[in-house]
Amino acid sequence: MKNRKPKDEQNRGKTNGPDSIKMKSKNKKRLGGGGLSLEAFANAKSKGDFYNPALIKKQKEFYKNAKYVKKYKKLLKQQSEPHDISSAIRSLEDENETEDRSMMSKNNKNRKNHSIPSLKQMYEKKHEKQEKERIEMEAVIQAKKEEREKAEARRKAVRDKMFRKTRAGQPVMKYRIEHLLETIQNSAKN
Fold this sequence. Notes:
Blueprint: H1 9-13, H2 18-30, H3 38-46, H4 53-95, H5 99-115, H6 119-162, H7 173-189
Region (Disordered): 1-34, 77-165
Pfam families: rRNA_processing
Protein name: rRNA-processing protein FYV7
C-alpha cells in the first residue's frame, strides 16, 4: 500500500511517460518477448531435431524389414541361378547339335543333380528327422507316465495299509511299524 500512487484523473489518460514504457516492456516479457519473424517461425516448425521414440522405433522397423527383403531377394536370385545355367545349356544344345556337346550337357546335368540335393530329398530328410525326434519324445513321455503310475500305485498301497483300523476303530500298528522300519532302512542305505 505504501508504493501505491495517488489516483489522479489526469495521469490515467497519459501513456507516454516513463511508467508506460516500463509497462510495455513488462508485457513483452510476460508474453515471451518480441514476436518471431515469419522466416524464424517457418524454420522452427520444420526442424526435426527433437527426440521422438515412436519415430525412432518406426525407422528401426523399416530398416529391419528392408534387411529381410534384401536377404529374401538375394536367396531368390541364388535359387534362380541354377535354372539360368540350365536354360543356357539348353540354348547351346539347340544351336549346336553335335554329339560331343550333347554328351557334355548330359554330364553337366548329371553333376548338377548329384551336387545339389533336390527339394524333395531335403524335405524327406527333414521329415524323417522330425519323425525320429517325435518318436523319442513319445518314448520319454511314455516312460515318465509309467514311472508316475507305478509310484502312484505304491503310494496307494501304503495308504491303504496305513489307514486300516481294528474293530474298535484303532489304527493297526503292524503296518505303521513296518513303514517306519522301511524308511529307517532306506535312509541307512543312502
